[in-house]
């Protein structure tokens, strides 16, 4: 759905919704999608990460993802 959305506002809503699942595997896939594809704009990547971190299940996954990918994130966002 994200890739087929016409408006940027709809893409942001879908990105946030993707991060509210309770399944850790889906959240991991969401984080990978947010950061490892060219389909999500850089300014929207932080929105996806923030949405995942507001999820009780996603909070620990976000912390782990941040630690594991720290240098990549610093290089991308400064």
TrEMBL record:
Gene3D superfamilies: 1.25.50.20. Residues 2-78 form the ERAP1-like C-terminal domain. It comes from the Eukaryota. This is ERAP1-like C-terminal domain-containing protein. It comes from Didymodactylos carnosus. The lineage of its organism: Eukaryota, Metazoa, Spiralia, Gnathifera, Rotifera.
